[in-house]
């Protein structure tokens, strides 16, 4: 890697450590020419599906646009930047997990609402009012009533996961043709 100080073409790695819960590698580097030290971060670059807008037009996914939408919803609410980072990462992870090349914007909006419901109920209603285009006070009232019937984030976290089916030994698959 090029030295940011003297622009020498080669630097050597002095130290490497995992960062960001193991999703990044932090490297301390030293320039062999000028002796300057600096830090770099290495992160896997995974493709994110395009978003299909309501009009049907595909649009490249933009993480900054997602973050901005969440930040508008949480404006002046007790939500930390780390909580926002986690919500954004969760939505991006869900998008990648689909395995699809394109994801409808409606689905992305639903995932954002799931994250906001766990972060802050006021932010959730703010986002829902814009996302679902509330036209009157009754729409707000209905959404708040629906929100109150759902388990709280604490209740959802304390629930036991679904019990996995017991291990069943696989039976050999018979194939047609020559007996084997």
Could you explain how this protein is built, in words?
- With 180 residues, the chain is of the alpha+beta class.
- The chain has 2 domains: 11-43; 50-152.
- The protein has 6 helices and 6 strands.
- The chain has a 3-stranded antiparallel beta sheet, with no helix packed on it.
- A hairpin with a 4-residue loop joins strand 1 and strand 2 (24-31).
- Helix 2 runs antiparallel to helix 3 (105-119).
- The radius of gyration is 24 Å and the shape is elongated.
Question: Any idea what the radius of gyration is?
Answer: 24 Å
Strand and helix order: EEEEEHHEHHHH
Report strand %. Answer: 15-25%
Helix content: 40-55%
Number of strands: 6
Number of H- or I-type helical stretches = 6
Helix and strand content put the structural class at: alpha+beta
Q: Give the termini separation.
A: 56 Å
Strand order of the largest sheet: 1-2-3
What's the domain count?
2
Major beta-sheet overview: 3 strands, antiparallel
- Give the low-pLDDT segments: 165-180
The overall pLDDT, averaged over residues, is 85
Shape descriptor = elongated
Provide a quick synopsis of the model:
This protein is an alpha+beta fold. The protein has helices spanning about 65-75, 80-95, 105-120, 120-130, 135-150, 155-160; strands spanning about 10-20, 25-30, 35-45, 50, 60, 100-105.
């Amino acid at each position: 890697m090029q030295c940011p100080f003297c622009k020498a073409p080669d630097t050597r790695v002095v130290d490497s450590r995992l960062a960001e819960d193991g999703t990044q590698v932090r490297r301390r580097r030293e320039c062999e020419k000028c002796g300057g030290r600096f830090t770099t971060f290495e992160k896997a670059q995974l493709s994110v599906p395009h978003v299909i807008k309501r009009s049907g037009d595909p649009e490249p996914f933009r993480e900054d646009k997602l973050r901005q939408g969440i930040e508008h919803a949480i404006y002046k609410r007790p939500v930390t930047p780390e909580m926002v980072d986690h919500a954004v990462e969760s939505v991006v992870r869900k998008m990648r997990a689909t395995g699809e090349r394109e994801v409808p914007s409606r689905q992305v909006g639903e995932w954002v609402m799931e994250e906001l419901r766990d972060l802050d109920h006021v932010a959730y209603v703010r986002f829902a009012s814009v996302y679902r285009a509330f036209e009157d006070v009754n729409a707000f009232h209905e959404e708040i009533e629906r929100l109150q019937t759902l388990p709280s984030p604490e209740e959802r976290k304390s629930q036991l996961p679904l019990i996995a089916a017991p291990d069943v030994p696989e039976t050999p698959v018979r194939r047609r043709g020559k007996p084997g």
